[in-house]
Amino acid sequence: MIEMHDVYKVYGNGVKALNGVNVKIDQSEFVYVVGPSGAGKSTFIKLMYRQEKPTHGVILINGVNIKRVRDWKIPYLRRNIGVVFQDYKLLPNMTAYENVAFAMEAVETPRRKIRRRVQEILELVGLYDRMNALPSQLSGGEQQRVSIARAMVNNPSFLIADEPTGNLDPENSWDIMYLLEEINTRGTTVVMATHNKEIVNTMRKRVIAVEQGVIVRDEQQGEYGYED
After folding, report:
1. Which residue intervals define the domain ABC transporter in the entry (predicted)?
2. Which one of 14, 94, 136, 212 is at 20 to 30 Å from 114 when CA atoms are compared?
3. Burial class (CB in 10 A: 0-12, 13-18, 19+), 72
């Protein structure tokens, strides 16, 4: 599903964000990526959906070397990669329905398929009755649910979540985690960067710990391993 082979990332200012990373994530896994601030977690995540390119090394997504994918093909590559952000990144002047539909329109999905699929995915995340609401009319938890619906609407092989509970209170954080777990049980691979110690220690999934650009720990049913 996801493979990194001897991956390095050096930014233009000389900062070495990743330093020889090797990892394999299989289909249907649920993986937490943890580590202190500045450890390289965000770079690790961004490389997976081609927000950044590796300086050296190979990254394979479903067998495709994504470094070699031409820029104009990136939207089609991302049909198999859903991405959820801490700050939701919803379009403020579009309703929940329109925000989710936009992800299908971007890859030229026939209009007749869009309405059925968007309604289906909004029902999955518990927002069918709120589909006509603007982001400003939704709570933080509801906005994140729209973000997840948008990420999942094209039936991606895997979902990348970058601090998806970072702006949420504990109750909404757990609601989002139960939703991500449900998505995972349906077969979608989930890779989630997080600082939430309670969630990681309670749910006990695979944990990859990154420090100074290096994977220092990779454990099944792992723990967070850092102080808050």
Report:
1. 2-227
2. 136
3. exposed
Domains of the chain: 2-91+140-145+155-219 (3.40.50.300)
Q: Tell me the pTM.
A: 0.92
Structure-token pair, residue 131: 């589909």
Contacts of 102 (CB under 8 A, 6+ apart): 91, 94, 150
- Closest to 160 in 3D by CA, of 189, 183, 124, 197: 189
Sheet holding 56-61, edge to edge: 16-25, 2-10, 56-61, 64-65
Distance from C-alpha of 104 to C-alpha of 126, rounded to nearest angstrom: 20
Q: Residue 47 corresponds to which tokens in the numbers above?
A: 């490389």
Contact by Cβ (8 Å): 89, 96? no
Contact 94, 143 (CB under 8 A): no
Instruction: Express each pLDDT in 97-134 by its tens digit.
Output: 999 999 999 878 899 899 999 999 999 999 999 999 99
Largest CA distance in the chain: 50
Residue given tokens 């792992």 in the structure block: 222
